[in-house]
Amino acid sequence: MYKQFTMELAGRTLRVDIGRVAAQANGAAFMHYGDTVVLCTATASEKPREGIDFFPLSVEYEEKLYSVGKIPGGFNKREGKASENAILTSRVIDRPMRPLFPKDYRNDVTLNNLVMSVDPQCRPELVAMLGSAIATSISDIPFAGPCATTQVGMIDGELIINPSQEQWKNGDLNLTVASTSEKVIMIEAGANEIPEDKMLEAIYKAHEINQTIIAFINEMVAEVGKAKHEYTSCAVPEELFAAIKEIVPPEKMEEAVFTDVKQVREENIRNITEQLEEAFAEKEEWLEVLGEAIYQYQKKTVRKMILKDHKRPDGRAIDQIRPLAAEVDLIPRVHGSAMFTRGQTQICDVVTLAPLSEVQRIDGLDENEVNKRYMHHYNFPSYSVGETKPSRGPGRREIGHGALAERALIPVLPSEEEFPYAIRAVSETFESNGSTSMASTCASCMALMAAGVPIKKMVAGISCGLVTGETDDDYIVLTDIQGLEDFFGDMDFKVTGTHEGITAIQMDIKIHGLTRPIVEEAIRRTREARLYIMDEVMSKAISEPRKEVGEYAPKIIQIQIDPAKIGDVVGQRGKTINAIIEQTGVKIDISDEGAVSVCGTDQAMMDKAVKMIEIITTDFEAGQIFVGKVISIKEFGAFLEFAPGKEGMVHISKISRERINRVEDVLTLGDMVKVVCLGKDKMGRISFSIKDVPKK
Question: What is the CATH number of domain 555-617?
Answer without folding.
Answer: 3.30.1370.10
